[in-house]
Amino acid sequence: MEVINAIGRRKAAVARVYLSEGTGKIVINKRELANYFPSTILQYVVNQPLNKLGVAEKYDIKINLNGGGYKGQAEAARLGIARALVKINADDKPALRAEGFMTRDPRVVERKKPGQPKARKKFQFSKR
């Protein structure tokens, strides 16, 4: 099996995922998963598509992550892994879609407008 690649995005985070046959090792930016994401919750988020299909020990995954915060990066990696798994076996798509792993979350930070301190907040109104 050749290397399958896919991309996942969330907020400002971009994950480039390279999936190949192996023993279930996940490397993010040349660091182990447990090293890169010390939080067990974020490790769980990254592993969700693999655990759903029961293929956690079947593939080696190399991920290049940049941009965003740790939560956005974990969810970007999850989307990238799900897309790569669907490239390998298209029959898995309905199961992953039912869990919401195939949907790109479109929510991003709203831009700051001129004449306002933040995106929606206005300066305090003074009558006199």
Automatic annotation (TrEMBL):
Highest taxon in the source lineage: Bacteria
Could you list this entry's UniProt keywords, alphabetically sorted: Ribonucleoprotein, Ribosomal protein
Region feature Disordered, mapped onto this chain: 106-128
- Where would one find the signal peptide in this protein? none
Q: Does the keyword Kinase apply?
A: no
* Family matches, as PROSITE patterns: RIBOSOMAL_S9
- Give GO terms: molecular function aspect only: RNA binding; structural constituent of ribosome
Q: Which InterPro entries does the UniProt record give?
A: Ribosomal_Su5_D2-typ_SF, Ribosomal_uS9, Ribosomal_uS9_bac/plastid, Ribosomal_uS9_CS, Ribsml_uS5_D2-typ_fold_subgr
Task: Provide ranges: composition bias, Basic residues.
Answer: 114-128
One Gene Ontology cellular component annotation? cytosolic small ribosomal subunit
Q: GO annotations under biological process?
A: translation
Q: Which NCBIfam families match?
A: PRK00132.1 (NF001099)
Please name the PANTHER family in this protein's record: RIBOSOMAL PROTEIN S9, SMALL RIBOSOMAL SUBUNIT PROTEIN US9M
Q: Which family does it belong to?
A: Belongs to the universal ribosomal protein uS9 family.
Q: What is this protein called?
A: Small ribosomal subunit protein uS9
Q: Which organism is it from?
A: Dysgonomonas alginatilytica
